[in-house]
Amino acid sequence: MKLATSIKLFIGLFLAGSLLTGCKNETKTQSPSTNEVASQQESKKQGQAFLKDDEATPNVLDIAIGSKDHSTLVAAVQAAELENALVNAGPLMVFAPTNAAFEALPEGTVENLLKPENKAALANILQYHVTPGKYSKDFLKKFKKLGQANNQSVQVEVQGDDVFVGGAKILASVPAGNGIVHVVDKVMLPPEE
What we know:
Layout: H1 2-30, H2 34-44, H3 60-65, H4 71-79, E1 92-97, H5 99-103, H6 109-113, H7 119-127, E2 130-132, H8 137-140, E3 145-147, E4 153-159, E5 162-165, E6 168-176, E7 179-184
Parallel strand pairs: 1-7
Antiparallel strand pairs: 1-2, 3-4, 4-5, 5-6, 6-7
């Protein structure tokens, strides 16, 4: 008699435990635990919109703005209203002409391009300096041409250790959070179609 009672008690406890476990599993699938909710909220806070300036790797626009040698390029980007394009997720390769490169253009060219009525022409020139991707100077040696953001192509030439893109020599390269900035010694002008 004691054995039968013990067996019934054991079966009862086993069934009760199974029911509780089943309820716990069902509850987990219906409403996540506090840890799961916190984890889900944390994953929703990832991406550019939630990065803090002091924690984020500078993007290609930040790098240009922070360079005293690229103030003309920054003014051109602002005049063409292309700032948002340079902070997107990328990856982007920006071939960034120095101030000296802009100064080498025929007199009055930059001033003329910065006029509001020439915004489209300026944007086309600037987009000719942007390529999708994030390739180092050495990796660029494998290319003959690159497709630019203005839907035209630019030639890549290698002369010894030097790489020229659209006739502009890469002087330095700076990694960015959304790509890479290749500092170049010349403003690349897109061919007329």
